[in-house]
Amino acid sequence: MAFRARRAPSPGASHTPFSAPTRHVPRDHLDADERRAAALHDPKGVLSSRKHHTSGPGPLGLADAEWKLLIGITVLAALVRTFRISSPTSVVFDEVHFGKFASRYIKTQYFVDVHPPLAKLLITLAGFIFGYDGHFDFKEIGKAYDNTVPYVAMRMLPAIMGIALVPLSYMTMRALECRATTALVASLFITFENGLITQSRHILLDSPLLFFTGLTIFFWVTFCNEDSKRPFTDEWWAWLTLTGLALGAVSSCKWVGFFTVATVGLSTIKQLWILLGDLRVTPRMWAKHFMARAICLIAVPILFYMFMFWIHFTILQNSGEGDGFMSSEFQHSLGGKHMQDTFADVAYGSQVTLRHWNTQGGYLHSHDHSYPTGSKQQQITLYPHRDQNNLWRIKHVVKDGEPDLDWKTQPLDYLVHGSVIRLEHVPTDKHLHSHDVRPPISEVDFQNEVSAYGYKGFRGDGNDNWVVEIEHGDSSDSQSGRRVRTLRTYFRLRHQLQGCYLFSHKVKLPDWAFEQQEVTCNKNAIRANSIWFIETNTNELLPASADKVNYKVPGFLSKFLELQSVMWTTNAGLTDRHTFDSRPSSWPRLLRGINFWMREHKQIYLIGNPFIWWLSTASILVYAAVRGFLILRAKRGYQDFNNTMVNKYDQLCGFLVMGWFLHYFPFFLMDRQLFLHHYFPALYFAILLFCSVLDLLTTMLRPRIRLQIAAVLLVIAILNFYYYSPLAYGLQWTRSSCNRAKLLKTWDFACQDFPEEYSHYASGQPTPVKPAGQVTIGGPGEGRPPMVVDDVVKAHKEAESPAAHVVEPGHDVFAAKEEPKVQSSGVVAQQQQQQQEAPVEKKVIQAAKDVVNEQKVIQAAKDVVNEQKKEGEKDADEPAPTDHKGVDPPVQGPHVPAAPAPAAAAPKEDHEE
């Protein structure tokens, strides 16, 4: 691509969102050459090329005809996005989570999610307006909605945002100075992109995320256009402020929105850098530009983001299933978790509850159940709820030969650093005990079992002795660093004989301990995991007027920062593989989709429009090739980048490629579960990039030819949309059509579940044809299609389960499973719970083996019957056997009656079942 070299435009003449904004410099201050260049570039004196940007007067520079066109494509997008939006009438994919979160908001019950609250709040608002009371549990994929759930209204919220993205894409392309034809192609590509359609029709967060991504880019580009004319006008401030608000909104939907912040941020840094080198810009003027951007693009988004969490905390005022992830102070700020004031001073004889500081696993706990291994003494665990079994009495150590000390007759003796104590479990009268025995789970040499040992009246032994080591106190309590104070002193308990520390970590015990958290005595303890504090304290010897304390009430900032930390930790912990997850390297090639829902021989499967998807990917490669070619030419002395058109498209495409890169490559750094829909923000930039490349390549063509090219592209895109629409809408489809649609072998939508002909749907029995010689497991009941043994074995070997059976893709995502017997705390607890539940594939494989074995047993039984019938058909005069030698042995398996024998013949023979 060779262009004639031209003199570069004057500084600031470029007014794209990726270069330095034009400074408002009077023409009298320009030299003759600069005035000629400015006159040629912008004869009206406003440095913004309107050749393609506008066709006439009107809002945002669009002519009336374009506004009519914009309304038309918006209506078309509405028809495409809302077609049969009420179907299916059951829970789809991650509606399991986000519908449940809406229920929690309405019932004001606290929960924890890995995403910020804005999109969830909008979905909740839609449900609340239409009368949702929050009592539907969204328990599993496929659960039918009842008439109390306005699920259509809740689905409409993401759909409306998906619709709004279409005109936004058009206006963004026009703001980038692309032709109306190109902008139309971009908007219709967004309209008919099957993946975007599927994602925007359900109660999911990606549609709001994409909408605010598109809104941010549109506001930013429009601001740059205003900045190119004259900075610091009312319009200039308005667009800059709107950009900041949109940045806050996109970040408040998902943390992926911070990639949009990075896109605008890098563009801003480049602007300020170029301004810094512009000698016509005074330091004072540069500082003003810097402060304006810092306020609007940093402070405003941060305040907006924090405001969304303020709303979140204001609504969720009551205790809920997410309490266990938060600190004790946070938990006790919630309704239903408040605690009465408790005595501050801790002394011998005090009845206390001890909490673990680091893991939020709960209280030091014991119950009348023994370990199945080791000492087989009474279990010690962490339990996250208040319970009588959390109560412990602090007692003196009894020396050999000395009488027991009755704490009631002794003067108050406060606990200090170095105090040696025994802890007696109040409900069972046993002592907290440790010895040189390995624990049942953490079976390593430096870990000792901790148990409850003894009985009422038992003096105990040296293995019951623990030394108090104060770690630190609270700055608000000057005494808490010298002696143990309730809620203010953090301490460790060292075993006096073994030298190990009372310890707990995020490891769950099995069912025999009710999946509670393990407690051990660790000789190499991580300090944070061996720190404890006393939460409640009563002592009969303390007067009622003694000092009392309670949890500090955390302020908003403290709760906000704690929740960000919990979200980060939880998000990083979602590392388990998922049946339909995928890695970023596969996304631009569209190698795999996601099974959303499958019932009644229909399927919703998220897959992109391959024509649009692969064109957008190709445009990135084209840009890289052309850019590399121009760089090589520049090395040879060519001045292509001084050409106005080359410079314009280079800046424009470079900005979009930067947006694509920043929304795509960070996922390579993540080890968590990832899905195809994580690519959608990058896909948006890629589609805009393709249309920008198209705008460049058709620059020299006549308008009619450009229209013809656009028409061909749109027809192919619409045909692809139509061909894959059964997967987007969950429509009727045939097996042959499905198989033809599989352009790649890695596309794993369930063609075998569709009938051979559409007429099977009308008959009400669209049962797929089963190949001969295969054993069917299950059936079409409950929406679970037939599955053959060959498919099961294949699923087991390939580690990618086929979509022939209903896979519940949302079930192993965060918070999707049913709550355990006791409330889990942290990601590790959730992962262990998932590991304890047998995967669907293993259960199906075992069922297949059982069926095959049963078939073999039945066949063996039939062989026995046939053999006995042959014996009965022998000559009637033949004498009957008088012993068991000629009788077949008993058959193991289903009961088979014995063949008839002559009267008074062989003795009776019992066949075992």
TrEMBL record:
Gene3D superfamilies: 2.80.10.50. It holds the Pfam family PMT_4TMC. Residues 343-397, 412-471, 481-537 form the MIR domain. The chain crosses the membrane at residues 110-132, 152-170, 203-221, 236-269, 290-311, 611-632, 652-670, 676-697, 709-731. Its EC number is 2.4.1.109. GO terms for cellular component: dolichyl-phosphate-mannose-protein mannosyltransferase complex. SMART domains: MIR. Coiled coil: none annotated. The keyword Membrane applies. It is found in: Endoplasmic reticulum membrane. SUPFAM superfamilies: MIR domain. It catalyses: a di-trans,poly-cis-dolichyl beta-D-mannosyl phosphate + L-seryl-[protein] = 3-O-(alpha-D-mannosyl)-L-seryl-[protein] + a di-trans,poly-cis-dolichyl phosphate + H(+); a di-trans,poly-cis-dolichyl beta-D-mannosyl phosphate + L-threonyl-[protein] = 3-O-(alpha-D-mannosyl)-L-threonyl-[protein] + a di-trans,poly-cis-dolichyl phosphate + H(+). It comes from the Eukaryota. It is a multi-pass membrane protein. Its main location: endoplasmic reticulum. Pathway: Protein modification; protein glycosylation. InterPro entries: ArnT-like_N, MIR_dom_sf, MIR_motif, PMT-like, PMT_4TMC. The keyword Ribosomal protein does not apply. Residues 864-873 have a biased composition (Basic and acidic residues). PANTHER family: DOLICHYL-PHOSPHATE-MANNOSE--PROTEIN MANNOSYLTRANSFERASE, DOLICHYL-PHOSPHATE-MANNOSE--PROTEIN MANNOSYLTRANSFERASE 1-RELATED. Transfers mannose from Dol-P-mannose to Ser or Thr residues on proteins. This is Dolichyl-phosphate-mannose--protein mannosyltransferase. It comes from Auricularia subglabra (strain TFB-10046 / SS5) (White-rot fungus).
